[in-house]
Specification:
39% helix; Rossmann fold; Four Helix Bundle (Hemerythrin (Met), subunit A); binds 5-S-methyl-1-O-phosphono-5-thio-D-ribulose; single chain; 2 domains; 357 residues
Length: 357
């Protein structure tokens, strides 16, 4: 997608270096950062310079490339894979990408490792772009249906950032929006701020602005009243891990939005590539939920009147806070899953049929 009119992907490889857009600096600064070592890749995932399930997967794949550039020894690659897998626990794409890279590399001769790893990392990223584009084309049908019925601007609510910045390009939840906009369907997006890290305000609103898509940032608790007032036609969110049962793990607060949507008969869709499906865990209570540093809650960062980025404490100095990063929306609250293959029911049967599992 575009930044100041120029097309970008969120990650690419150039002159032995992995290039990323440092998302901790957005929306105030657009900074391209070099990752040169496996440590850089692990750190970029941990500190959320890159984030969003598909992009974490792509970064992990390129992390293996960086590890091989440093040291072709199998022990080093194994240790690097483990460090990457543990860098963030909830999004399954990370684990998925590392397994795929290691499977591809097993039985490859030492002098061919780098070449094979590079090709596979690029393939993982190219596939994600194609999958997200298809998610958009499939989700477009739902938006078109709403538009043809109401013949007025379609109001879509989204949570967190499941936009192109969370993937390699297009995004998952935003891809149907970008496709509808390209087709000339009038769209307006309600963007949940998404405390504590504000991925909605800082990233989703930013990327929609760059594509000229009308959007309004709302506090995370506003969605309910907007739905009661009939000002939300549909919700679309992304996911970090969707179980084969159709239960959806996504950014904290998604569950409450799904409950409000259910109570107000607002369709609630989840957009995902198949790399985000966990076919193994059956009970959502077994999904590892990341708990992040409580400083993300107690402090807030922004630009002061002199354009300097400042971080300030907003809570009482002695208060304790707790920062769970994800929650689970049970399948019964999900209207449908928008995947690269089509739209299916959020259920064991729906997913089984769609993916021939
Ligand atoms: O903590 P983050 O910013 O990595 O969380 C991201 C999300 O929860 C997204 O909604 C999800 O990864 C889907 S991304 C296409």
């Amino acid at each position: 997608m575009r930044v100041k009119g120029k097309k970008y992907r969120t990650i690419w490889y150039e002159n032995n270096v992995v290039k990323i857009i440092d998302q901790t600096k957005l929306p105030h600064q657009f900074v391209i950062k070099d990752l040169k070592t496996i440590k850089d890749a692990v750190n970029a995932i941990k500190t959320m310079e890159v984030r969003g399930a598909p992009l974490i997967g792509g970064t992990a794949a390129y992390g293996i490339v960086l590890a091989i550039q440093e040291n072709r020894g199998l022990d080093f690659i194994k240790k690097s894979s483990e460090e990457l897998v543990h860098s963030r626990p909830t999004a399954i794409n990370l684990q998925w990408a590392i397994h795929r890279m290691n499977n591809k590399l097993s039985f490859v001769k030492s002098d061919e490792l780098l070449d094979v790893a590079l090709k596979e990392a690029k393939l993982i990223c190219d596939e994600d772009v194609k999958f997200c584009e298809n998610i958009g084309l499939n989700g477009l049908k739902i938006i078109e249906e709403i538009y043809n019925k109401n013949n007025k601007t379609v109001n879509i609510l989204t949570h967190c950032n499941a936009g192109w910045l969370a993937t390699i390009d297009w995004g998952t939840a935003t891809s149907p929006i970008y496709h509808a906009h390209k087709k000339g369907i009038p769209i307006h997006v309600w963007v949940d701020e998404t405390r504590p890290r504000n991925q909605g305000a800082n990233l989703t609103s930013y990327e929609l602005n760059e594509e000229n898509i009308p959007n309004t940032i709302i506090a995370d608790n506003t969605g309910g009243i907007l739905m009661q007032r009939g000002e939300v036609d549909m919700c679309i969110v992304g996911t970090d891990r969707t179980l084969s049962t159709g239960d959806v793990c996504n950014k904290i607060g998604t569950y409450l939005k799904a409950l409000a949507a259910h109570d107000n008969n607002v369709p609630f869709y989840v957009a995902l590539p198949s790399s985000t499906i966990d076919w193994d865990i059956k009970d959502f209570k077994n999904i590892p939920i990341e708990e992040r540093n409580s400083e993300e809650l107690s402090h807030i960062e922004g630009k002061d009147e002199n354009n300097n980025i400042q971080k300030v404490l907003i809570y009482p100095e002695t208060s304790r806070s707790m920062n769970l990063a994800f929650d689970i929306t049970p399948a019964k609250y999900v209207t449908g899953l928008i995947t690269e293959k089509g739209i299916c029911e959020a259920s064991k049967e729906g997913l089984k049929q769609m993916f021939n599992k």
